Amino acid sequence: xxxxxxxxxxxxxxxxxxxxxxxxxxxxxxxxxxxxxxxxxxxxxxxxxxxxxxxxxxxxxxxxxxxxxxxxxxxxxxxxxxxxxxx
Length: 87
Hints:
alpha+beta; Enolase-like, domain 1; three-stranded antiparallel sheet
């Protein structure tokens, strides 16, 4: 999970209430779902939709370089937090 206040862009925009959560299989790391709550959810959900539709894993988010500072960085933060929780 990544809370928007943890992101540089979230702090710049003053978005302290939103979050992004990845639902994944701990063994295969396959992404099964993405929950986004916040004002910018509609601007971010398409990234998760594409990864899920192609059977992607959380490694995609870990290995991808997201523009900085953007709210899309929440995917990387959530993936890294998820990786830490399953290891």
